[in-house]
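queue> holo job accepted (shikimate-3-phosphate)
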Amino acid sequence: MGNVRAVVLVGFMGAGKTSVGQLLARRLGWQFEDLDDRIQKREGRTIEQIFQDSGEPGFRRAEHEALRALLAESQGAPRIIALGGGAYIQPDNGALLRAAEASTVFLDGPADELFARCQQQAVQRPLRRDREQFEGLYAARRPQYLTASVRVDTSGKSVDAVTAEVARCLGLQFIPSEAGPPPGAAN
Ligand code: S3P
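queue> job finished
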């Protein structure tokens, strides 16, 4: 994959973008950035409040500006960036990512598993309503996620295993002190 300087994790709600991103960054000794966190800090409002006050179009504008600012800063420092589930679907954001020459990784998984993971989390997600709506939205978005440089299947896998697979796919080496237990070791 050449000289990877920015890895951007994409995928639907519940795919593990934040958990895998945090662990991957720690294991590589890179910086981690979460786009939803950036949006909330810039706006001084939660994602839920932004949706309530400004609707989805207002949220998408804030998301685009936050991504633009994030990609423009500290050029050259290697980073892992977790996007929110809808960010990669917006064409303007795809253009920003291409211009930044980011490596995009799609964390894939079956909709029922993603829905179950979301149910276990306290995070408020305005675009997760009932299962039928969730599955329909995932089906509509999946073709776009599949345009990412790499796809990693997360089904039935731990955050650790997915993190190792992402690094392997991108040819990235963990720093020795953070490499975790050797394969096959009991944990
Ligand atoms: C969204 C996903 C959320 C967040 C917002 C919208 C979406 O991020 O950005 O609620 O459109 O799928 P996660 O994928 O981290 O839940």
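queue> The CA atoms of residues 60 and 70 lie 15 Å apart.
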